[in-house]
Amino acid sequence: xxxxxxxxxxxxxxxxxxxxxxxxxxxxxxxxxxxxxxxxxxxxxxxxxxxxxxxxxxxxxxxxxxxxxxxxxxxxxxxxxxxxxxxxxxxxxxxxxxxxxxxxxxxxxxxxxxxxxxxxxxxxxxxxxxxxxxxxxxxxxxxxxxxxxxxxxxxxxxxxxxxxxxxxxxxxxxxxxxxxxxxxxxxxxxxxxxxxxxxxxxxxxxxxxxxxxxxxxxxxxxxxxxxxxxxxxxxxxxxxxxxxxxxxxxxxxxxxxxxxxxxxxxxxxxxxxxxxxxxxxxxxxxxxxxxx
Length: 292
Known about the structure:
The protein is an alpha/beta fold. The chain contains nine helices and 15 strands.
């Protein structure tokens, strides 16, 4: 079937990518010389897909230049603070057809997109041994028959998806009925999909390890792009590096700290001088213990 368009979801805060995502949207991170979302847009265009929509919310203004540069269209998700990514799907409901549905923070070593696709699918890589990822099984025809959080020696959800027109229509019909139900707001669209596998038919598109990348934390990004080891591109981390008189490379194991409403309020990290917390609100650094 001919691909109609692509929808890139970029509304979320990506708080685990602290503190870089606090200073700049994660999709705008430069990885090996390319802006993450720009690389994805270029790969789509190279595959013949020029009708591209970006669902925006957090730091929405940072995406506006892409309209002129690549001819993309922006779709606001005004509920990104209060709902999970099902709100981005709902925001894009009028353009969901035979559509790629992607995350703005994926890095594809090879271009995974094509102008014609056989069926709806979810990209996957294989985990040898135990994993905490969302693992899938398939039936005799290759359709996803179960999804479990965590597993062993299994294909797991990782990367982009393709929605056929039929899949889009059926998913939106279900989402329309469930959108305002208690509990739906916090659900990933994948959780809604998991609950309706009998109706929502999607195959597993299997990729070799090392084709699809996702950087949840600065430490993970450093493993892929070692220039971030000594230069984090973070004003906050540079200030902390100067204040503690330690090089940026020694600031590691960074983890976001969320407040009562799940909004990021700061981050914690380790360095040779100890364990520290940083507060976004007070812009203060506090030592909380010695390293073992």
